[in-house]
Amino acid sequence: MEQRNPRTAARLIFDAALRAADPYQAVQRVMQRQGARLRVQEREYDLTRFRNVFVVGFGKASATMARAVEDLLGDVLTRGWVTVKYGHTIPLTTHKIHLHQAGHPWLDHNSLEGTRRILEIFDAATEHDLIIALISGGGSALLELPVAGISLEDVRALTDALLRCGATINEINTLRKHISQVKGGQLARRAPNTALIALILSDVLGSPLDTIASGPTAPDSTTFADALAIIERYALRGQIPPTIVTHIERGARGEIPDTPKSAEALFARVQNVVIADVTLACDMAVQTARALGYNTMLLSSFIQGEAREFARVLAAIAREIVTSDRPLAKPACIICGGETTVTVRGHGQGGRNQEIVLAAAIEIAGMSNVVVLSGGTDGTDGPTDAAGALADGNTLARAHQLGLEARACLANNDAYHFFQPLGDLLITGPTGTNVNDVTIVIVEAL
């Protein structure tokens, strides 16, 4: 057999994972049309009974989803509004659905404008209308209208504090939902008599409906008391605006109605459908690695925790394979999916995937047959233009020749400026999808 290049193989495996999570194909899998009959999983809709069919969307993948829906239902669509992260419209053209760009992960005025336009559609809809909502990761920032008394700057400050303290995405969304007029099922509440189909591309482990994009169309399982507990857990009282603390405390005392729960009748007219998640991407990565000749294992699609600690575990598994062919014999490939967090202590630039690879590079130094790649399926990792990075056992030696110190860069959370001079950033550009992160470890036979 021709000798494989493990770096090239890792990129091929990652690209296959991206293709599996393609939102256009995912929409087509769950939504089929025959004339005036629209079938979405087990439910059928008679399109002739609707006076208007509206499309709304928010999230990094919603532009691609919008194109799929318009290709299927363009002749019956009335109009639509979809808000995506800057640069994530890709080269897409839609005719009846307006594609609007806004800020992520920090809200901006375009986020608020997009939300207002979406709410105009919801507030005008009647029992004679159908709304199709396209939801994907990033939707928490792209759909937002804070409650009265909380400003856009307050929400930005909260998001920044939560990202810096290492809060999980579930914890971040719990707080977001309880200072919002649209999250946690409250968007569905805006059109009480209208049929609503929500197609959801999941970027949350296990795909809980109330967590993806902060669950705007789903019953909310979290409470004001949960939100207050997160503030206490991370000692955030002095770090977030007092307007937010006061609002959460009032809610916890029962002075403000909580978000809608599963028993509420409004959800009988809502169909929430998860159309793709990280497990699809991981499964395709496994298939591709095996086709390339690797003994392959999906370690987990539920990876969480601190990025650099996860990296040390991966490096330990790689070392076990190198020395004893356990848990897989060489040539081996380990696949993981999930979403880690970074507790930011430095002032550098990077993201969780770049931090995983930098921390792993330190641990695998000298193991020339080991490669680690980690990337975000949306094509962005933190506030950078990279999806992630790639390293092998020779990375530290190459970096040393350029005067780069890996441990110093890791301490400063500056993985981007470590990998950029090496040419080892994973650059995909916006991918049009968003289903968490995929990490690949290859141990090649010597």
Query: Mind telling me the C-alpha Rg?
Result: 22 Å
Task: Give the ordered list of helices and strands.
Answer: HHEEEEHEEHEHHHEHHEHEHEHEEHHHEE
Q: Count the beta strands.
A: 15
Q: Rough shape?
A: globular
* Annotation field: number of helices: 15
CATH class of the largest domain: Alpha Beta
Which fold name is given in CATH as the topology of the largest domain?
Rossmann fold
Question: What's the CATH architecture of the largest domain?
Answer: 3-Layer(aba) Sandwich
Kindly report the name of the CATH homologous superfamily of the largest domain.
Glycerate kinase, MOFRL-like N-terminal domain
Distance between the termini: 13 Å
Number of domains: 2
Largest sheet: 6 strands, parallel
Low-confidence stretches: none
Helix content: 25-40%
Mean pLDDT: 95
Structural class of the secondary structure composition?
alpha/beta
Task: Please tag this protein with its features.
single chain, 446 residues, alpha/beta, glycerate kinase, domain 1, Rossmann fold, 2 domains, six-stranded mixed sheet, globular
Description:
The strands form 3 sheets. Strands 6-5-4-7-8-9 form a 6-stranded parallel β-sheet, with helices on both faces. The chain has a 6-stranded mixed β-sheet with strand order 10-11-15-12-13-14, with helices on both faces. A 3-stranded antiparallel β-sheet has the order 1-2-3. The protein is an alpha/beta fold. The chain has 2 domains: 173 residues, glycerate kinase, domain 1 (3-Layer(aba) Sandwich); 255 residues, Glycerate kinase, MOFRL-like N-terminal domain (Rossmann fold, 3-Layer(aba) Sandwich), CATH 3.40.50. Helix content is 37%, strand content 20%. The mean pLDDT is 95. The chain contains 15 helices and 15 strands. It is globular. Helix 3 links the parallel strand 4 and strand 5.
